[in-house]
């Protein structure tokens, strides 16, 4: 017999979200090892016992963030459609990834920090979920290349380059803004530049 889990109240859901939002700020700035429960509690405006009521450990909070982050991170690649126009499909992926960096910079930095530390909490997910999704899309891109619908390109390195060129604006935000100064939002110019770059590269 399946045991039903008790439904959370509105205030419980609110407190969990407050804790996760505070933890995201702390983890993205300090990394997993540099963040403490006390720091998360202070950022959330809650007591440490209150935080531990909702999450039994720092690792439980971190894993909760990563689970939600993975769905967010994979969604733009899932939308790559084999039936669509190849160039427009790839450019659409570039746009979605850049907007993801703009709208979710802390999530991007959290993911980057986890990977830079060897992905100890995501090894299985990266080697299974991410690997399988990328393999599926690599096959689509390879088919477009083989049929002459886009220029010859290594599908894996194409995807890696999209990750690097879009996530850079979130992960190195301080550097980008230091170099560009107080001028216009860098994302508008980045969108124009990246669309031009990939459209020329992919043209058959």
From TrEMBL:
BP term (GO), one = negative regulation of DNA-templated transcription
Where DNA binds (residue ranges)?
A: 36-55
Sorted alphabetically, which InterPro entries does this protein's record hold? Answer: Homeodomain-like_sf (IPR009057), HTH-type_TetR-like_transc_reg (IPR050109), HTH_TetR (IPR001647), Tet_transcr_reg_TetR-rel_C_sf (IPR036271), Tscrpt_reg_YcdC_C (IPR013573)
Q: Which organism is it from?
A: Paracoccus sulfuroxidans
Q: What's a single GO MF annotation on this record?
A: transcription cis-regulatory region binding
* UniProt name for this protein: TetR family transcriptional regulator
Q: Which UniProt keywords apply?
A: DNA-binding
Which domain of life, per UniProt?
A: Bacteria
Q: What region holds the HTH tetR-type domain?
A: 13-73
Q: Does the keyword DNA-binding apply?
A: yes
**Alphabetized SUPFAM superfamilies for the sequence:** Homeodomain-like, Tetracyclin repressor-like, C-terminal domain
Q: What's a Pfam family in this record? A: TetR_N
């Amino acid at each position: 017999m399946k045991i039903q889990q008790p439904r959370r109240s509105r205030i419980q859901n609110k407190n969990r979200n407050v804790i996760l939002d505070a933890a995201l700020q702390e983890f993205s700035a300090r990394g997993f090892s540099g963040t403490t429960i006390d720091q998360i509690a202070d950022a959330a405006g809650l007591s440490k016992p209150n935080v531990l009521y909702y999450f039994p450990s720092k690792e439980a909070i971190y894993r909760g963030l990563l689970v939600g982050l993975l769905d967010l991170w994979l969604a733009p690649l899932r939308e790559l459609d084999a039936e669509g126009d190849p160039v427009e499909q790839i450019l659409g992926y570039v746009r979605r990834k850049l907007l993801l960096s703009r709208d979710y910079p802390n999530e991007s930095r959290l993911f980057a920090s986890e990977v830079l530390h060897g992905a100890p909490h995501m090894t299985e997910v990266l080697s299974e979920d991410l690997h399988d999704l990328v393999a599926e899309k690599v096959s689509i891109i390879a088919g477009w290349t083989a049929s002459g619908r886009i220029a010859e390109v290594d599908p894996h390195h194409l995807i890696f380059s999209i990750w690097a060129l879009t996530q850079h604006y979130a992960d190195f935000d301080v550097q980008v803004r230091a170099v560009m100064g107080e001028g216009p939002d860098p994302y508008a110019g980045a969108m124009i530049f990246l669309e031009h770059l990939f459209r020329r590269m992919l043209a058959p």
